[in-house]
Amino acid sequence: MTTILGIETSCDDTAAAVVSDGRVAHSNVVSSQLDLHAQFGGVFPEVASRAHAESISAVVNRAMDEADVCYQQLDAIAVTQGPGLIGSLLVGINFAKGLALATDKPLLGINHLEGHVYSLLLEPNNADIHFPVVVLIASGGHSELLLMTGHGEYRRLGGTIDDAAGEAFDKVGRTLGLPFPGGPAIERAARNGDATAYSFPIAQTGSPYDFSFSGLKTAVLRQVTVQPTGPGQRKRRRGAEKRAQLRYDIDIADVAAAFQGAVTEALTRVTIRAARQFHCTEIWLSGGVSANQMLRHKMREESRLPVRYPPLALCTDNAAMIAAAAHYRFLAGQRSGLDFEARSSWRLSGETYAE
Ligand code: KG4
Ligand code: ZN
User: Fold this and answer.
1) For the segment 165-179, what is each residue's pLDDT rounded down to a tens digit?
2) Relative to the alpha carbon of 8, which ligand is closest?
3) Distance from C-alpha of 159 to C-alpha of 55, rounded to nearest angstrom
4) Which residues lie near ion ligand 2 (Cβ < 5 Å)?
5) CA dihedral over 59, 60, 63, 66, signed as positive or negative
6) What does the pLDDT look like over 219-234, one tens digit per residue?
């Protein structure tokens, strides 16, 4: 059995978890900074790194206490190396390096996106996997479509060419005056809405496996807000979702349902197209947007393949997924030196165990 402490600080959640064999989370502590960032309607990088620095020690101690393990019992320490906000990543990385040095444990730097992939294996029902699988990672920072042919073997098929799916939820949520993050708020609002009340465009891109959500976001903005008319006002369209005034006759539930319908339809169409083309045996959904029940439902309705997703609590950022991804790398003999650096951008592709 391997037991790994995972640490995640790539964005606005300070997280630590202890996981055995990449499958069983003994603890999973997430300290959210949502309250700090809500006033900005998004994540404010400097506020995020300072908050990580303030809470990381307590979060790691709590994860160790709740798992009831001591450092001697750990096989390794894993930390998110990237992609993410550099200042935030550095807090987790430096803490993990110090801990590895002090406890003389091996250290592994993990790709956050690979963490999202391995969050699926923390669901007990997802025990029996058959590669190749198509993986959709849809979160606030990423919308990636991968072909996974084995543990650590990825081919990037496509991704968003503009906004990430979660980012579109967040921006439209802000336009509609809903709380941040927009995804869960839009899903809640959409429950009482009629998705056919509005018709929003689903973008076609140059590649069959890419996504585009920026046109959809703009279409919603045009539909629901009072449009600027004067020449001076028109110039200020950029970032207009922050200032635009909602039309009085808008039904927010209907807009939320129609927007959610368009995003989930785009994600479903492209993912199923890739699964067919590459003869995949399963479809995997991960990242914050995979918590969306409409997305899960559509994917199951429209594909005959098994559709798997992580436990609801592990769709959004957490450290259990980082420890789970590290398990397979640890078994493959991979270790990171104490001098590895944070990577603000880092695509998941190639046979990454062979690097
Ligand atoms: O994976 P995550 O925690 O962070 C990133 O790595 O980006 O994803 C957060 C994103 C946010 O944009 C949020 O609006 C979206 O996931 N999200 C959802 C839902 N829950 C979270 N989007 C749609 N429906 C949801 N239920
Ligand atoms: Zn994430």
Assistant:
1) 999 999 999 999 999
2) 2
3) 33
4) 139, 317
5) negative
6) 999 999 987 666 655 5
